[in-house]
């Protein structure tokens, strides 16, 4: 039986989903593309397919993988300082583990990068470690609203996994949503010359240390012992993948007094030293990036505006899709949605600065694929989603979105300016 090819969406599925089907060459192609490497051939040789319940263990770093193959009970770091206790989750370039700091007698999270991502950090194609170091070394980076690096070290991998860069941080709950704390974190990054480029609800965390003591975490580990899936076939051997475990969600009382932080700097870029233009998922991508123009930290303001809509409605604002009726590509549709939602056309001086503008626009700055434009303001987008807001919140939310979602980045508000907006103030 031929298994379905793995799409980009499947590769980026969350850690709560399972059964990744990996065509070895196809996964390699995507990873190389994400790292700005030369693409591999589109020819489909007879290659093995592997099915993994979570992260794909046992595939080499040289082909875009190299996931950490450790287990609870293993001690890592200088003087074996950190003892692993449970796997908390995984992503496209790392797995995250709960660990006990045997020196400070506390619990921490260790993000263990794949061998491939570790090499990209060494080559400065990924900048996560550098971003943490910049935030730690400047007064502008000191903030209660950005994740903080406690330690970093390299751990030798096994087989062909390569070395693993290990980033030690505080423990967090994930998938929590606080717009103001996110904005404060963005402002701190921008003061340090850093663009996050991946602002979304999944990257807003809450400090677990607010209410969980060391004893409480130890009790949770005892009550939730590590488990593995059934052995799965990998490239040269069978592997056993640990099941991701998550802490119980915070109570309403806990949320009232906890500190929210912006986290996950794996896609962050130094604005003055950009290494890629391949940033943000397409539906969140600002127009200057879509059209191949110059970009800066204001890309985060655009994605923050999109995130405000998602926090209110639990739906994406922009939904790029192919339109057979208009013979339009996903990008054609996305640019059309930007025009009718944001209520403005692209100006000539902006399009002249974008190298791909002639692919989608006529010389008079009108889109090639669409002739009729019916304005759909943010108020209607929100109400059409089924979200009911009182008039004050509707006015405040749409005003914030309007200040963020300007087609020309020069016209967007800064993070610092938005912090003074009445709707975002505590």
TrEMBL record:
Say which domain of life the source belongs to: Eukaryota
EC number(s): the record gives: 2.7.11.1
Keywords, A to Z, come to: ATP-binding, Kinase, Nucleotide-binding, Serine/threonine-protein kinase, Transferase
A molecular function annotated in GO for this UniProt entry is:
protein serine/threonine kinase activity
| SMART domains membership | S_TKc
Task: Reply yes or no: does the keyword Electron transport apply.
Answer: no
Q: Does the keyword Ligase apply?
A: no
What GO terms in the biological process aspect are recorded for it? regulation of mRNA processing; spliceosomal complex assembly
Q: Which reaction does it catalyse?
A: L-seryl-[protein] + ATP = O-phospho-L-seryl-[protein] + ADP + H(+); L-threonyl-[protein] + ATP = O-phospho-L-threonyl-[protein] + ADP + H(+)
Record-linked Gene3D superfamilies: Phosphorylase Kinase, domain 1, Transferase(Phosphotransferase) domain 1
Give the EC class as a word: transferase
Protein kinase domain location is 82-424
**PANTHER family linked:** PROTEIN KINASE DOMAIN-CONTAINING PROTEIN-RELATED
Query: What name goes with this protein?
Result: non-specific serine/threonine protein kinase
- Look up and give the organism this protein is from: Rickenella mellea
